[in-house]
């Protein structure tokens, strides 16, 4: 459910070492996340795993950029002093505004870099300050971190608050139709987690969808407007089906890449809190990342006949015996948990009912992942 009081969930990481441990934790988590996404080959349709892994890598790039932005910022005295703000309840990720601010920085990165000293120049000044004045060059360290931050933004590849739809051609079909896989993503402003959408579509239009500029822009705008966590998949799919007579949605999936739980950084309730507390895991091992994949499939087609035309309408499968069905507005719901070995051992010992149907990806030595469930 969407949160109602967002600011009470915000926490500013003022402790520099806590912030560094936080970024180190997420560097590992996002690396493992990409690997887990690719490991799900065969469990998701077509190229879903590669698409999901690509978005996971974009999340990793966002964390790398933010780690540079805040690397020295907490030591600076004055207006430049700043700290990362995270959502500590049912998220564990940076708040939405952090990504908005980063997007603003990216839009001005080229101009900002043009007015900054180069990396080698800054390093040379730092050495001269240390050797000649025997002083810690905090201001120069900060300048270098910001230089590297803006360079990372110009290199691109980050996960933004909106990742606009991309169309991948999947082949030609009978009756002159074409198959596409559309994918896009958002950073949910209430849940503060990355959310990925994948839509399988059959195109019966005269012009291929990506080449039909007017229709493609309408599709992009429609999909971004409907990318709201509170909307059920069946609502999104039926709305798309109704608004585009020559586009036929055959499958829709929504993937929540979070929340991240950690006793050191987040507040949690229920079994996951007890698991993390009882595990007493060392630094870097005290976490669990939850995934949720909602899936909606078209079951059959019904034809609506008008005076001069016929329109296809998709009928979507809602299985009332699946535990999802009409209440959730999806065909099925898959839940997964990625966690290190020690918290998993405690989870297995406690065996709470709510986690018995959750697939576990357990991270062992060398970040090797074992799958349970």
UniProtKB/TrEMBL annotation:
Protein's name in the database: Uncharacterized protein
């Amino acid at each position: 459910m969407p949160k109602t009081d967002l600011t009470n969930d915000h926490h500013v990481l003022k402790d520099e070492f806590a912030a560094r441990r936080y970024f180190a934790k997420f560097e590992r988590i996002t690396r493992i996340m990409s690997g887990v996404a690719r490991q799900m080959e065969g469990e998701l349709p077509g190229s879903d795993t590669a698409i999901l892994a690509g978005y996971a890598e974009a999340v990793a790039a966002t964390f790398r950029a933010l780690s540079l932005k805040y690397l020295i910022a907490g030591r600076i005295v004055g207006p430049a002093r700043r700290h990362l703000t995270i959502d500590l309840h049912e998220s564990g990720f940076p708040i939405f505004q952090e990504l908005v601010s980063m997007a603003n920085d990216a839009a001005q990165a080229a101009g900002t870099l043009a007015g900054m000293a180069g990396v080698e120049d800054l390093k040379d000044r730092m050495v001269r300050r240390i050797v000649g004045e025997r002083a810690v060059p905090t201001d120069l360290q900060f300048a270098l971190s910001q230089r590297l931050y803006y360079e990372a933004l110009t290199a691109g590849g980050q996960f933004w608050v909106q990742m606009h739809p991309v169309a991948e051609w999947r082949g030609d079909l009978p009756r002159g139709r074409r198959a596409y896989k559309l994918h896009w993503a958002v950073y949910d402003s209430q849940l503060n987690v990355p959310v990925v959408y994948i839509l399988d579509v059959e195109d019966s239009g005269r012009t291929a969808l990506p080449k039909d500029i007017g229709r493609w822009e309408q599709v992009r705008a429609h999909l971004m407007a409907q990318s709201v966590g509170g909307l059920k998949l069946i609502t999104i799919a039926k709305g798309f089906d109704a608004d585009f007579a020559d586009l036929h949605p055959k499958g829709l999936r929504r993937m929540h890449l979070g929340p991240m739980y950690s006793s050191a950084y987040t507040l949690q309730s229920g079994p996951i809190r007890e698991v993390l507390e009882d595990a007493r895991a060392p630094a870097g091992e005290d976490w669990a990342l939850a995934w949720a994949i909602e899936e909606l499939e078209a079951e059959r087609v019904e034809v609506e006949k008008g005076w001069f035309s016929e329109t296809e309408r998709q009928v979507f499968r809602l299985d009332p015996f699946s535990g999802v069905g009409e209440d959730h507005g999806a065909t099925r719901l898959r839940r997964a948990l990625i966690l290190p070995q020690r918290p998993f051992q405690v989870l297995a010992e406690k065996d709470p009912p709510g986690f018995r149907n959750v697939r576990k990806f357990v991270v062992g030595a060398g970040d090797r992942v074992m799958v349970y469930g």
